[in-house]
Here is the input.
Amino acid sequence: MPIYVRHPDNLRTVAREIRDLTTGLDVPEHSTAEMVAYTAGARLKALGRMAEEMSDLLLYRLTGPLSTDRAELRGNTALATATSGCVQAMSSLSEILRQVAFLNEHARLPPSPDLADARDAAWSVIHDHVEEARTALHDTADQLNSDARRLVQPPRRPAASTPQAQCPPAPAPLSTAVRRRPAL
Here is the structure.
């Protein structure tokens, strides 16, 4: 899907796609390493495509002639922020896959207390990183929706200085000239 950064609906669509990636992104109590790997890997692949599309657009927009269109400039900033959030989620998903690889590597070793502790630690890291990925995706989608709302709003004007009529009157200058009494 092409992304047109000047149109709020397109940014909202990207936000919806990002939020949709959180659906089913969890680790049920009786998950297998294979189920976790499939879930994390599929989301990582989808986020990779999205990040590539957003970065291609940003590369095109930010290296060409500078736009004067305020909505486009705001859209570029929103997209760069969304790309950063997607990469953060991708990092968490990659760590999940690394932990699953650890579990697979040690799956056939004879049981021992140390190995049981290491497996428990790997599952704990998996749970933590699933939550981090979900949070990053939710936060990214929320920020993109917020940016889409502000995309077409006029820029805020800086607070105006107090009008002259509202300022307290300046004290009258004191005369230092000697005054004479009028002659009678």
In short: The mean pLDDT is 86. The radius of gyration is 30 Å.
